Amino acid sequence: xxxxxxxxxxxxxxxxxxxxxxxxxxxxxxxxxxxxxxxxxxxxxxxxxxxxxxxxxxxxxxxxxxxxxxxxxxxxxxxxxxxxxxxxxxxxxxxxxxxxxxxxxxxxxxxxxxxxxxxxxxxxxxxxxxxxxxxxxxxxxxxxxxxxxxxxxxxxxxxxxxxxxxxxxxxxxxxxxxxxxxxxxxxxxxxxxxxxxxxxxxxxxxxxxxxxxxxxxxxxxxxxxxxxxxxxxxxxxxxxxxxxxxxxxxxxxxxxxxxxxxxxxxxxxxxxxxxxxxxxxxxxxxxxxxxxxxxxxxxxxxxxxxxxxxxxxxxxxxxxxxxxxxxxxxxxxxxxxxxxxxxxxxxxxxxxxxxxxxxxxxxxxxxxxxxxxxxxxxxxxxxxxxxxxxxxxxxxxxxx
Amino acid sequence: xxxxxxxxxxxxxxxxxxxxxxxxxxxxxxxxxxxxxxxxxxxxxxxxxxxxxxxxxxxxxxxxxxxxxxxxxxxxxxxxxxxxxxxxxxxxxxxxxxxxxxxxxxxxxxxxxxxxxxxxxxxxxxxxxxxxxxx
Lengths: 400, 135
Known about the structure:
The complex is a heterodimer of chains A (400) and B (135).
Chain A: E1 8-12, E2 16-20, E3 25-29, H1 36-49, E4 56-60, E5 67-72, H2 75-88, E6 92-98, E7 112-117, H3 130-138, E8 141-146, H4 150-159, E9 163-165, H5 179-195, H6 197-202, E10 211-212, H7 213-220, E11 234-239, E12 244-249, E13 263-268, H8 277-285, H9 290-296, H10 309-326, E14 344-348, H11 351-354, H12 357-372, E15 379-382, H13 387-399
Parallel strand pairs in A: 1-4, 4-10, 5-6, 5-7, 7-8, 8-9, 11-14, 14-15
Antiparallel strand pairs in A: 1-2, 2-3, 11-12, 12-13
Helix pairs in contact in A: 7-13, 8-10, 10-12
Chain B: E1 2-7, H1 14-26, E2 30-33, H2 40-50, E3 54-59, H3 64-68, H4 71-75, E4 85-90, H5 99-109, E5 113-116, H6 120-134
Parallel strand pairs in B: 1-2, 1-3, 3-4, 4-5
């Protein structure tokens, strides 16, 4: 039997794909005129052909993940629990709705992959009335799952077509129950990956399950100390072409969620440096401090229109600043992290090929000074060789 | 009856909170104890999720005074809390103060029952009397 070091690990991103063997890691810019498999074989056929299909392990974030809309009763419990589970299953939360105000929310025009309805402990039924049915009638979605209080389940199942009912995510002590929803969402994501024509092709070269990249990265976090000098609590930023993933130690959140997992994940769907570059620039234009950051970096807003190495560098620095802003008290995302308690900040992904530690520290220091009025300086760690992904991928490979 | 309880704000006085939990259970209430360090929104959200009829907030470091001012404003955002019985107890001021000043102030904040430096069992007796009179 081969060891994990004999395996070929492949990560398909929205912009690049990476191929790792025990000798080296290759990174290639994707050719969007070609199918992924053709592109991969064109650029790395020698490497791929050296391995048996059972020794090839692939993960992908190239499909952008599934989108979910969550309808719940409160921010502190039902929405928070379901959002946390969704993010950890690799799903992107596009909106969350407080049921009592459901009539005030606009209907998203895009197709929602999965709608999650949640709320109430099992002894508190009668929460979801016909306002839910009215809203859902106008919504365009593929799947719908109910993980709320028990008494409402039967009534909703008879009223809502194809509603899947799973056990409540809130137990009778108001604690989170992750298992069933997480399993369902993970399988749904898996089916989505397998269903994409491009990804389906990749099964021609691998005999193993293709996983989602965020899942693989999350798997590596408990092992991160073996490779890097990282002190807890830390955050890991994976600034990609289309999205930015943040994995954070749970010690950084003031939370009422108690789980065994040490790290959670949040994704910013519109903050990326290639495919999502336009929306990143839009976000920067809405941020009053971004202009000051540009001045600090000695460039002007005209850099947004440039297509140079310098512009890419600035966009990446902006991405770091904006993501930190989103997770601070300044712009409250789904979670607000205690960034002053953070000891390390780890960077992975394409950003590590462009920015130096000094470039990153400059932006991080600017953020702490401007937004948090502090000289706090977490240690910057650069995963320039994609070790974090390979640690996670090997973990999976050894499990299979 | 369901009761949501906990210690408000950045207050970590857990012993009193535990005693409250035990006493409420002994009196037959179904208790949802949010523990220490609980923010106002979490109290109201827990009431919505559990369908509790009573919200019993405690404070020992006096921080409740600051939070109390926000009660009416926040509660008004919820559409299902009109019949909620709201009680607060413990040490309800920073420094010294007397109940004659403090109780009306908290009632004005929106609390139905206010127990400043009142013995736990006396406070819970007050709650029972209030429930009998109002339900």
